[in-house]
Design brief:
Number of domains: 2
Structural class: alpha+beta
CATH superfamily of the largest domain: DD-peptidase/beta-lactamase superfamily
Number of helices: 14
Helix content: 25-40%
Strand content: 15-25%
Number of strands: 17
CATH topology of the largest domain: Beta-lactamase
Shape: globular
Length: about 400
């Protein structure tokens, strides 16, 4: 049910789709006991000698109703990481900064969703073909041109490009660009292989196609029309801290990071990259979730038509990951879509039940650990079990 009156100036008179509001679980059509359990579980994530995260923020709901929110822990808890003791060096209590609902987070790979939407906007407008060869737009990217990599393959991570390149080790910007231009697929195109390089190529394609940098495309085409005023590329003041970034566990020696992009390649590229670099808050991401569940509209703004939203959210998904129980828990299996970020961020939308879940955490503070999506899956399962069948309540 997309509203008319596009953010890019097209369409006719505006029709309004529901905006987010706070309400009771019953009003949202969700079980209050399950949501209470969800809030309780999240508040424990920063507890214990080896907590899952230093701090976290949760927003969850159904329809336009935010029915559950929770905050725990600290936006800044550690001064550094002690390698010998294998633990964080705690800041004095007065120097710690508590997490709040409005704390911005380094989104890491959730940035990919914004690059995807910016790409699909061009597909909707007819300026970009979904099955067009990337080389037709980027002739100087010789390896992509030679192997016939398509826009669809970049969006679905089936280009065959390896997960990443050590751009952070290249001596200058021309060297980094040359690495991207000459990088050939490491596996057969058509096979799924998740890769940051796909989104970096899409960034270059979009910028060449439109003549505008990616941060401007995302601001003018997504965040500004949706009123997502807390979402932007860094640096950002007041953000949750991430990692004491040092070799050998990291790929660069940068010290404790706060408000500077964590991803080493995004940092080497100046902070604006197709795969990482955005900062945002839980509420702003809940607005994005509602926009997707509303078929591309929010309030009087429309950033995409419903058919193009379906392209992103329907398996195999364009940019979005569909039905992955590893972080979607019991929401997976009938069309839930979303994404995770290396710093501890995640979001899930379920078009079948019209539910959304945003869980942001700084799991890499004070240093990165092997990925553990167990708490994300548990939170999504709580929300799935909270759904009350339509018609059985007054919501």
């Amino acid at each position: 049910m997309a509203a008319h009156g596009r953010a890019d100036g097209g369409g006719g008179g505006p029709l309004s789709s529901p905006r987010l509001r706070h309400g009771t679980p019953e009003r949202a059509g969700l079980d209050a006991a399950q949501l209470a359990g969800l809030v309780r579980d999240v508040r424990l994530l920063s507890e214990g000698p080896r907590p899952w995260c230093a701090g976290a923020v949760l927003l969850a709901g159904r329809g336009p109703v935010i029915a559950a929110e929770a905050v725990c822990g600290w936006a800044v808890r550690y001064a550094s990481y002690d390698e010998a003791a294998d633990r964080g060096v705690e800041l004095p209590g007065a120097a710690r900064i508590p997490m709040t609902l409005d704390t911005p987070f380094d989104l890491a790979s959730l940035t990919k969703l914004f690059t995807t939407i910016a790409t699909v906007q061009q597909i909707e407008r007819g300026t970009l073909g979904i099955d067009a060869k990337a080389g037709a737009y980027l002739p100087r990217f010789t390896a992509a041109a030679r192997h016939g990599i398509t826009v669809r393959q970049l969006l679905t991570h089936t280009s065959g490009l390896r997960p990443e390149l050590p751009l952070y080790d290249a001596p200058d910007a021309p060297s980094r660009l040359e690495l991207l231009r000459t990088e050939a697929p490491s596996s057969a195109p058509g096979e799924y292989l998740y890769s940051d390089l796909n989104m970096l190529l899409l960034q270059h394609l979009l910028e060449r196609l439109t003549g505008r940098p990616l941060d401007v495309l995302i601001r003018d085409g997504i965040t500004r029309p949706l009123g997502m005023n807390a979402t932007s590329f860094g640096p950002r003041t007041g953000a949750a801290a991430t990692e004491d970034q040092r070799r050998p566990w990291a790929k660069a020696d940068r010290g404790m990071l706060r408000g500077e992009v964590h991803d080493e390649n995004a940092w080497a590229l100046g902070g604006v990259a197709g795969h990482a670099g955005l900062f945002s808050t839980a509420h702003d991401l809940a607005v994005l979730c509602r926009t997707l569940l509303n078929g591309g509209s929010y309030g009087t703004a429309r950033i995409l038509g419903p058919d193009f939203v379906d392209l992103m959210l329907t398996a195999p998904g364009l940019g979005f990951r569909v039905d992955q129980p590893g972080f979607m828990g019991e929401l997976a299996g009938h069309g839930a879509a979303g994404h995770t970020g290396f710093t501890g961020t995640s979001l899930v939308v379920d078009p079948v039940t019209d539910t959304f879940l945003v869980l942001l955490a700084n799991t890499v503070h004070p240093r990165r650990r092997p990925a553990d999506s167990g708490p994300r899956a548990a939170a999504a399962t709580r929300l799935a079990r909270a759904v009350v069948p339509l018609g059985s309540c007054g919501g």
